[in-house]
Amino acid sequence: MQTVIETHDLTFNFKGKKKAVDELSLKVPEGSIYGFLGPNGAGKSTTIRMLSGLLFQAQGTIELFGKNLKKSRKAALKNSAFMIEEPTIYKHLTGKQNLELLCKAGGYKKSRIDEVLRWVNLFEDRNRKAGNYSMGMKQRLGIAGALLPDPELFILDEPTNGLDPQGMYEIRELIVELNREQGKTIFISSHLLGEIEKMCTHVGIIHHGKGIFEGTIDELATMTKTAKIFRIETRDAKKAIDTLKDKWKGKVVEKTIAEFQPDSKANQQEIIQTLIKANIPLSQAYEVKNNLEELFMQVTEK
Amino acid sequence: MINLKSLSGVISAEYMKTKKTWAFWLSVFGGILIPAIMFLVVRSHPEIVSNRMSNMPWYLFLKYNWQSVASFLLPLYVVLVTSLVVQIEHKANAFKKMLTLPYSRASFYVSKILVILYYVALTHIIFIFAIAIFGLLLGALIPETMFLSKPIPWVMMIRQITKSFLASLGIVAIQYLLSIRFRNFIKPIGFGFAATIAGTIMQLGWKYVDYWPWALPAKVSPNIMQGASSEIFTMHEWISIGYFILFMSIGILYFSYRNIK
């Protein structure tokens, strides 16, 4: 499978602040719906702005369709369409006029206008002023505009933000349809895990500007199950690990703290029992959340 | 840098965006307003065009009209129309979209200012047509003004608006850069307004007034003595063109390398 977006060590810092994006490397395969997940302020929008050429990265490289964005901007952007934050809409014009405008400016075929209007389900409302559209309709008009040039890659920054459940559902349906029926690669950012789970095939997770996970949605599910970390405190952590090494792999965190990754409560109890039997005194035993899990608390709560 | 075929599409798109907006109506009525007022003035005081130099009613009418707009209203119009045209983009959240299209940022910067120049030209053209129509009307209503017996001085009028258009270029480029830079339109308009007033005060005798962009349109007044022999353009048009080139270059560089948040 071909890679459509590839970044290496992408870094950006706003003046005088800490790094908004920190050595981020992404690989987006062709034909995927790639969910770019992270809590608010994690660096999602900054990353998308760098991908679109609105922000210039401090370091690292971006390739779209194998073309370097900095060196050959036109070629890199040729097959890509973006929708960043609110859609671009001239409120004093009708929905259809808004698209005509983009056709003129971009030199696209006018015949596509009705086609994309039907795609996003705005054909009936095409002659209404876009200023009177609902949030969801505006968002769909933005998507229609991005579809005009028939791009291969479609990058959307939080497209369901601020929409009601019905609006969110419609956008989701549209994205899945575009992917399945037209084979478009879609890169979509969100701070809601639920959103991503419902439509994406691949996930990339960003936290404090750093990429902390990238893989398929199934890999993510496996990862979260085994991600529990169990810590014990004892006089000599190394001795405890040695005692358990036949069954569980442990890691010394501090001199008196050892860490294990049992996959169930029963296993946690077994660890404690084994240690007591071996006459190793325990002062504490507890679960700690790892980064990913902590992050999940943030992205799953609404 | 700029593809001519795509440029014509961009311009026609720009025109579609701005027609029937404030920028359009301001240009139309801005061109008519002063000739209409001067029409009323001459109607009640015909002697101001017929008495003193009775064989030159058109020249005097043009001169009065011109003096009424040049030092204050014209620079102010340029300040307003520039901000209005750019504001349409800010309001539609359009810069982000436009700048992710596979064109150079420079070509967007240039295409947008062409629309502003179109409106500035439009208001000038409407201005001389309004003068011609109101002059003819005065001639019909008050025969002794002699408007009907003298030919309409098209050459002089076209030369005048060409000079005035060129003298406005400096303001356009500066206000354009400010309007792009500041999303809040109060900032470029406030600045332009203050700069225009400063310009009218400088006319009273500051020695560098010739280099103040907002004062340049007032410096290119019609001169009947300026026959075919003398040069058509004075230094003021060239100063204005110089400012235009300078600030367009700064603007293109700034726009091309700016991070868009």
Which SSEs are present, and which pair or pack?
The complex is a heterodimer of chains A (302) and B (261).
Chain A lengths: L2 E11 L5 E11 L3 E5 L6 H8 L7 E6 L2 E2 L4 H5 L2 E4 L11 H12 L5 H8 L15 H13 L5 E5 L7 H18 L2 E6 L2 H7 L2 E6 L2 E7 H9 L3 E6 L2 H8 L6 E4 L2 E4 L4 H13 L4 E7 L2 H10 L2
Parallel strand pairs in A: 3-8, 3-9, 6-7, 7-8
Antiparallel strand pairs in A: 1-2, 1-4, 4-5, 9-10, 11-13, 11-14, 12-13
Helix pairs in contact in A: 4-5, 5-6
Chain B lengths: L3 H15 L3 H23 L2 H4 L6 H14 L2 H19 L2 H6 L5 H37 L12 H28 L4 H17 L32 H23 L4
Helical residue percent band of chain B: over 70%
State the oligomer: heterodimer
Mean model confidence by pLDDT of chain A: 86
For the biggest sheet of chain B, the summary is:
none
Number of helical regions of chain B: 10
Strand content of chain A: 25-35%
Secondary structural class of chain A: alpha/beta
The total strand number of chain A stands at 14
Bulk shape of chain A? elongated
Instruction: Write the element-wise H/E pattern of chain A from the N-terminal end onward.
Output: EEEHEEHEHHHEHEHEEHEHEEHEH
Helicity level of chain A: 25-40%
Q: What number is the mean pLDDT of chain B?
A: 86
Structure classification of chain B? mainly alpha
Describe, in plain words, how this protein is organized in 3D:
The complex is a heterodimer of chains A (about 300) and B (about 260). With about 300 residues, chain A is of the alpha/beta class. Chain A is about 35% helix and about 30% strand. Chain A has helices spanning about 45-50, 75, 95-105, 110-120, 135-145, 165-180, 195-200, 215-225, 235-245, 265-275, 290-300, and strands spanning about 5-15, 20-30, 35, 60-65, 65-70, 80-85, 155, 185-190, 200-205, 210-215, 230-235, 250-255, 255-260, 280-290. In chain A, the strands form three sheets. Chain A has a six-stranded mixed beta sheet, with helices on both faces. In chain A, β7 (about 155), α6 and β8 form a beta-alpha-beta unit. Chain A is elongated. The two termini of chain A are about 35 Å apart. The mean pLDDT of chain A is about 85. Chain B is an all-alpha fold and about 260 residues long. Chain B has ten helices and no strands. Chain B has helices at about 5-20, 20-45, 45-50, 55-70, 75-90, 95-100, 105-140, 155-180, 185-200, 235-255. In chain B, α2 packs parallel to α7 (about 105-140) and α7 runs antiparallel to α8 (about 155-180). The longest helix of chain B is centred in the middle third of the chain and has 37 residues, at about 105-140. Chain B starts with a helix and ends with a helix. The relative contact order of chain B is 0.15. The model of chain B has no long low-confidence stretch (mean pLDDT about 85).
